[in-house]
Amino acid sequence: MGEENGQETIFQGLGVSSGIAEGEVVVHWQDEEEIPLRDIGLEDIPGEIERFEAALIATRQELLDIQQKIAGAIGAADAGIFDAHLLVVEDRTLIDEALRGLERDLHNIEFVFHQVAEKYCRTLAAIDDPYLQERVVDIEDVTRRVIRHLLGKSREEFHKLDRPHIIVAHNLTPSDTALINRDLVRGFVTEQGSRTSHSAIMARSLGIPAIVALPGICSALTTGDRVLLDGYSGKLVLGPSAQTRYEYGQIESRKVEVEHQLEAIRETRSETRDGKHIVLSANIELPSELDAVTRSGAEGVGLFRTEFLFLNRPQPPSEDEQYEAYRLVAEKCAPHGVIIRTLDIGGDKLMHLSDQPAEDNPFLGCRAIRLCLAQPELFKPQLRAILRAGAHGHVRLMYPMIGQTDEIRRANALLEECKGELAERQVPYCHDIEVGSMVELPAAMLIADQLAKEVKFLSVGTNDLVQYTMAVDRGNERIAHLYQPTHPAVLRLLAMAAKAAHDHGIWIGVCGEMASEIHLTPLLLGLGMDELSVVTAAVPRVKKAVQSLDAKGCGEMACQASGMTDPQAIEEFCRTYAKKHYPELFDC
Ligand code: PEP
Ligand code: MG
C-alpha cells in the first residue's frame, strides 16, 4: 500500500492535526480481535486457569488506572467511574461458567470465555430491563479487555508505555483519545477517521500531530518500526532516510521561528487592519485544557464541549461534579468568558447509559438537544450546574443541534424551572444568563431569523452543517472528498444566517473546524462572522490572519467566492487570497 522510495516507504493519508513527529510506533490491535481456537488436554487446565486469573487481575488493574486517569482529567475524583466494569471482573457467575466450560470443552480459555460471555450478554439483552442492558455494554467491554490480556495485546498498552511513541490504530474513539498520555504520545495514525471526527478534533486540541484515513496501516506496520509522521501533509514515512529527516528538521525549525513571531502578538487584540474586532476564542473538551487556552492569547472559551465529562463512565456526572468543572473553567477564563454548550451526546460521542438504545443512524438520531429534551433528568442537573457556575464568572450557555424554535423554547422553559429550584434551595446562580443557539442543521440556518428572536447569539457548527448539507458522514474516509466546507450551498447558508443575526441585532460566530483553517479566515470574515472559536493551537495563527486582513476587502472577496460554482475552485481562491496577505503562515 505504501510507495517505496529507496529505503523509505511512504504512506499517504489525511493530515488532521499539524506538526511533525518521529519515533517508534505501537500498533494498536484492530477493532475486533480474532480469537484463536485450540484444543487442550486435561493437563493444560491448571495453566489455562492461571492465565485466566492473571488476565482478570490485569484487567482489574487496567480499569482502576483508567478510573484514576479520567477522574484526574476532568478535575474531579469520582469513585463511581468504571465501578460497574470492576464488578464484572469479579462476577462469579461469569467466571465459574467459564471455568466449567474449560473443563467440559477442552479449548483454550480465551475461546471459552468469549463464548460464555457472549451467551451471557445475549441472555441479558433479551430481558427488557434497562439496568441489565447497561450491564451488557459493561460485560462486552470487560470481556474484550480480558481477552486482549490473554492474547498479550492490551489495548491500554499505550497508556502504560513509558517511552515516547506514535500510536497506530484502526480507529480511536473520542473516549480513547481522552485517555491519551500527552507527555508520551508523539502522534497518532488511524485507518479510519476524517478531519472533523472527534478524535481528530481532540488531537488538535491536545496539539498532537495526527494522520487519519490510512486503511491497512495496522497490518503494514509492526510495533517498534521507526516512522516520521507529517501531520501537515498526511505523509507517514516508514524508515525515514537521513535526507528526509534533515528536510523535516528544517520545516520544524521554520515552524518554531513562526511560533516565536506569533508569541509577540499573544496579548494583542484580534482586530482587522480597518478596525473590526473579531472575537477570537478557543474550543475545549476538558477543563484541563484551560492553561493552554490562557497561554494561547484567546479571549476565553467559545465552545466547551461538555459531553467529554460524560464519556468513559457508567453514570453521568452529578450536578455538583459538573458545577465544580464549569466553575473552574469560568474562574480560569476571567476576565474573559466561557460559552458552555449543553450535552451533545450522540453521533460519534456515545455514552454508556442504560436507556440509550443503539441507533442505525446515530448522527440523525436522538442526539444532543433531542436527547436532553427527552430526558430532563439528564438535562436539568447540567442546566443547574451551569447556572450555578454563572455566579463565578462570565458564563453563557448554548444549545446544540437546534432544528426548530420550539426546541429553544422548551429548553428555556426547563432552564427557568431550574432557576426556580435553585432559588428554592437558596443556592447562588446567574439570574440573567445569556442563552445562544448552535446553528448546525441546514434547517436552523434557513430559519436563523426566527431563532435569532429567541437567543442572544448564534454559533455555527460547520462540522455538522457541512455533513448535513452535503449528506456526507463527517467521519467516513471513503467519502471525505465530498465533504466540502467551501461548497456554494454552505456559503449561501453562512451568508444567510449572518444577515439574519445582524438584522436582529445579535452576534454570530463559527465554532466548527472551518474557523481554525487560516485559509478560510478571509471568507468567514467576509461572510459577516463576528466571532471565531478555534482549536487552541490555532489561536495565534488565526489572530495573525485577522490582523493581516481588511474587513472590507474580505467582504468583496467573499462576494466573489459566492458567485463561483466549484467548491475546489472556491477553496483555492480562498487559499490564494489568504497566502497573499500572510504568506509566512503557509511556509510551514
Ligand atoms: C460542529 O458541529 O461544528 C461543532 C462545533 O460541534 P461538534 O463538532 O462537537 O459536533
Ligand atoms: Mg456539532
Quickly list its features.
588 residues, alpha/beta, Glucose Oxidase, domain 1, Enzyme I, Chain A, domain 2, TIM Barrel, nine-stranded mixed sheet, 14% strand, binds phosphoenolpyruvate, binds magnesium ion
What fold name goes in the CATH topology slot of the largest domain? TIM Barrel
Proportion of β residues? 5-15%
For the secondary structure, the number of strands is 17
Q: How much helical structure, as a percent, in the residues? A: 40-55%
| Low confidence ranges | 74-79
- Side by side, the strands of the main sheet go 1-2-9-8-4-5-6-7-3
Number of helices: 23
Please state the second-level CATH architecture of the largest domain. Alpha-Beta Barrel
Largest sheet: 9 strands, mixed
- Number of folding domains? 3
Query: How far apart, in Å, are the first and last alpha carbons?
Result: 27 Å
Alpha carbon gyration radius: 25 Å
